[in-house]
Amino acid sequence: MTDSKERTNRLVFLVVATVIACFLCYWIARPFTQPILTAAILAILFHPLFVRLRGITGNRNWAAFLSLIVLFVILASMITLLVFAIEGEIVTSYRWFKDNTAARDGWTAAFSAWVDKAAGWIGFKTGISPDVIRDAALARLDQASTGIIRQAGNVLASIGTITVFLVLTFFTLFFFLRDGRQLVNRTARLFPLDDDQIDQIIEETQTSIRANVVGVLAVGTVQGLLLGIGFWVLGVPSPLLWALVTGACSVIPFFGAAIVWVPGALYLVLIGSWVKGLILAGWGAGMVSLSDNIVRPWVISERLKLSPGLLFFALLGGVEMFGPLGIFLGPVIVSITLSLGKMLLTEWRRKPAA
Known about the structure:
Layout: H1 2-29, H2 33-57, H3 60-102, H4 107-126, H5 130-157, H6 159-188, H7 195-234, H8 239-249, H9 258-270, H10 274-288, H11 292-304, H12 308-322, H13 326-349
Helix pairs in contact: 2-3, 2-6, 3-4, 3-6, 4-5, 7-8, 7-10, 7-11, 7-13, 8-9, 9-10, 11-12, 12-13
């Protein structure tokens, strides 16, 4: 009886101490949740490459290190290509802007002429004085330019934060790749589940993350293609470049492709092509941006066997809770929840052994 009581006391103490320790560990790791979660997602994506490299090198450290090198080369190549493309487009746009404003006594006079033209058209349609419209437009422009300068300063100030984020992500990814299987096996021992149930949860997580990666690539491809076609048909310069930029911006929650097609529509309006600007705005809002709500649920639901409606709210709720990582974590959480619900129902219906 005494041994039973001592054992109960030890269990109670260990449970309470473990809960307190886990809570403290959570608060310690809380500032680094974003790089840790990012590294976990990348570890799942690059695990097949790690396994292949481990078979070639025969060493887990070298396999994990070479996997990081591959990831770094991919990211550096994409960023370099995008930077060079944007740099060339900026130079081309500056030359076009300079050539088209030289005949109008510089860009200030040319912009004033564009504003006067737009204000006259709006005043004719609405009955508001063009002077009032012009003053309001210039005031908004001044506010916008001040905001752009402030945001540019914020971007420069955040370079250090981004660098720290990348260093922590790569550092954590190395250990997730090298020791990920052992970490999963040790964690699985804490749960009173069968091996097949644990394998099912792991498979659901891997399938969900990979399905979301396919969904991100599909959305980027479709939106880039649609907007590139729209730019090409309406005569916006460098449609191929802006198609690539659209594909990259498609991962940004809530804004996405609008970051590209809204300035494109404004560009057409400023050069006097009002009809083309309205057509591009309608094409961007009605087809390009809307395709995200069609392509992503369709691609992911086919792989996860989730209803598009449930997946839609999983994506929105995930982004609201976790930010950009919610694109991956939202469907993962919903998929694992459904899997646990099925296990619970199966366990509930199972008859106890005699």
